[in-house]
Amino acid sequence: MQPKELEARYFEALRAEFGAHEWRGTPDTLYMGGGTPSAIDPAGIVRLLETLPGRPWREATMEAAPGSLTPEKVDAWKRAGINRVSLGVQSFVKSELARTGRRHDAATVERDVALLRSRGIANINLDLIAGLPGQTDASWQESLDAVLRIEVPHVSVYMLEVDDDSRLGAEILLGGKRYGAVDVPSDDRIASFYELAVETLERHGIRRYEISNFARPGAESVHNLKYWRREPYIGFGADAHSFDGTTRRQNAETALEYVECGPSVRAGETGADPVEEKFFVGLRLSEGVIPDASDWRRFGPVFERFLSAGVMEQRGPRLRLTPRGIMVSNEIFQEFI
């Protein structure tokens, strides 16, 4: 199936899934992500989103690749209800971007942000990745300085994760040299980059509210907070996830499967343990979690061990990870699964 034909059929399947959904309430947030939705014909986005209830949404985010924005696109997104844009910057350093296949540079990002603001979209997020091949203390500081210079209200900082879902990750696991695999910083260096980001951003009023997310007061992502607070959400499209408060569902993984098998075909469905999820999801937030008496009965020894080790702290009834705990958060989360 040719890309244009697949795109047309994919939009048909999405509209069908929208139409078949029985809304139990009116959504107040929306997030268009996965792949590069900013590359889609803007008129198609307008037609697609006009079928959804809830406009004007409290928050409606579009993920976008730097350099893909035009005045016509941004104007169309606004007509469609988009009021927040997340730019997948990754880095502001040319040599690092070249290795990831990105074609933008710092000037491109600055132009995109200026364009969004001129069109009335000031709620902007920039993504950075700590641990790209060839990244150094100086180059990481260059990216952080660029973020501060642009003065966006929200920043996401992700530590490079090695898995076989990406070309770079697969190459690292195989011990190869392509895609800069041999130049990926050590885990300790990546951790130090992350800690520098926390210190630098917070010094300028951009505070961490979730392990990978930082915002000025009031600019936290309303939509993403729903994931971490275990509020229900609905996902549409290929590989989209949904949670109704009890069960987690995943749509068919690829666009082709989604189109050919129909949106009702699920890649997976699992029951959610609210107590387990309360901690391995909720502890991602800087605000932490308030355990009740039954939580203490179930996980009391685990809490005490983490408190004694200094990776968790208690403020009144609330438990949260310490800065040291955040660096070993994956190991901590496993204790609640």
Describe this structure in words.
This protein has 337 residues and is of the alpha/beta class. The chain has 14 helices and 12 strands. Helix 1 packs across helix 10, helix 2 (42-49) packs parallel to helix 3 and helix 6 packs parallel to helix 8. The longest helix has 18 residues, at 3-20. The radius of gyration is 21 Å and the shape is globular.
Distance between the termini: 41 Å
Q: Give the SSE string.
A: HEHEHEHHEHEHHEEHEEHEHHEEHH
Mean pLDDT: 91
Q: Which runs of at least 5 residues are low in confidence (pLDDT < 50)?
A: 166-179
Q: Helical proportion?
A: 40-55%
- Structural category is alpha/beta
**Topology, number of strands:** 12
How would you sum up the major sheet?
7 strands, mixed
CATH topology of the largest domain: Transcription Regulator spoIIAA
Strand content: 15-25%
CATH architecture of the largest domain: 2-Layer Sandwich
Strand order of the largest sheet: 1-2-3-4-5-7-6
Number of DSSP helical runs: 14
> Which oligomeric form is depicted?
single chain
Shape descriptor = globular
**Total domain count:** 3
What would CATH call the class of the largest domain?
A: Alpha Beta
Mind telling me the C-alpha Rg?
21 Å
